[in-house]
Input
Amino acid sequence: MKGKIALEGLEFHAFHGVYPHERESGNYFTVDIAVEADFSKGASLDDLEGTVNYETLFQIVKNEMEKPSKLLEYVADKIMQEVFLQLPSVE
Output
């Protein structure tokens, strides 16, 4: 059973931007993330190991948002890399 899990409206104050003032004072960012995975194991066994843990997904986004970067595209790519690394069931 394939499905999608989404976290929407995650708010962070972070220090991303090309210009010095963006990296010094920071800005507020809202992040939405959706991932697809096979949830068959989690659904049939009632086991967290067979699904995508929302807490892990949130922590990945939070950790990457805390690292100052010049480009949001870079941050998005780092989030994607960590999702695939830490959550192997995500497609």
Observations:
- The CA atoms of residues 11 and 30 lie 5 Å apart.
- The two ends are 13 Å apart (CA to CA).
- The chain has a mean pLDDT of 93.
